[in-house]
Amino acid sequence: MSAETVTIRVRRGTPEEPSRIETFAVPYTEGMSVLDAVMWVHAHVDSTLAIRYACINANACKECMVRVDGKTGYACTSRLGVEGALIEPLDNKALIRDLVTDIVPPKERLAAHLAGDG
Ligand code: FES
């Protein structure tokens, strides 16, 4: 593989369909994050690829949590090497779509507040 591109594999799908792995070649920059690669795919290849993030590389929002090569971490602080990576949604949270899972604690949900439980 050239150091000019890196290959990422992304597990995609919804709760209503079997998941699948899709492969993307992404321009490589030393020090880039997994989130940088996924955002590049979203902007240049497939705008339907779903990932949640808010602060982008500030490690403040905690919304970009995914599995990278089987380990849970933040996509924005996980560095991507030239060997690429397998990027998957969290396996202990309910899948919403692609890399987005339901990470909101139950008592922080609007419905819980409206019901007086939160
Ligand atoms: S995007 Fe906010 S912690 Fe990763």
Q: Please, could you describe this protein's structure?
A:
The chain has 118 residues and is α+β, with helices and mostly antiparallel strands. The protein has one domain: Ubiquitin-like (UB roll) (Roll), CATH 3.10.20. It has 2 helices and 7 strands; from the N terminus they run E-E-H-E-E-E-E-E-H. The strands form 2 sheets. Strands 2-1-5-3-4 form a 5-stranded mixed beta sheet, covered by helices on one side. The relative contact order is 0.21. The structure holds FE2/S2 (inorganic) cluster (FES). The site of FE2/S2 (inorganic) cluster has 13 residues, from loops.
Summarize the helices and strands and which ones pair or pack.
Elements: E1 5-12, E2 20-27, H1 34-44, E3 65-68, E4 71-74, E5 85-88, E6 95-97, E7 100-101, H2 110-114
Parallel strand pairs: 1-5
Antiparallel strand pairs: 1-2, 3-4, 3-5, 6-7
The structure holds FE2/S2 (inorganic) cluster (FES).
